[in-house]
Amino acid sequence: MPGPGEYVPDATEGITRVEDLPKPRIHKRSRNFAARPCPTCHHPAGRYGVGTRTLHDLGDPRSARPLDLVVTFSRHRCRPCGRHFTADLTDLAFPKCLYTRRVQQLAVRLVAEDGLPYRTASWHLWRDHRVFVPYATIQNWVEDAGGKNLLRPLDRLPRRGSG
Length: 163
Known about the structure:
By secondary structure, the protein is an alpha+beta fold. It folds into 2 domains: 24-89, no CATH class; 99-150. Helices cover 24% and strands 26% of the residues. Strand 4 and strand 5 form a beta hairpin. Helix 1 crosses helix 2, helix 1 (101-112) crosses helix 3 (135-144) and helix 2 packs across helix 3 (135-144). The radius of gyration is 21 Å and the shape is elongated. It starts with 24 loop residues before the first strand and ends in a 12-residue tail after the last helix.
């Protein structure tokens, strides 16, 4: 058993392919409701189906495995206005995103506040949080958040004596 401060090499250091990464732990969540209010007309809308969505979340470095949230959600149809919609998952992740908001916020913070390059931020997320995020994805998130310059407005101030 390693003691405090003892160097322990990363067991996944020699892995070069995504397929060889350790299998994730699965946590199941449910957003399956019998009825929800319609976002348009606010009438109760009954459930007509169920779906699932897998989200990559911050993993546990002690177990050296990533964490995937498998969310079961309900699909609803409002009879008065005919609108189809799903149970709200925006508190967990943005629509059509594979990663939770926690992963996105941490990745953007690593680049914007800590000043890490995209590749280094990607490696940091894997090494310390066991979530694999391609560096180009992190770059897209930072650009959507306003870019590096907008996240650190003090860097854009004119220097003294620069007219």
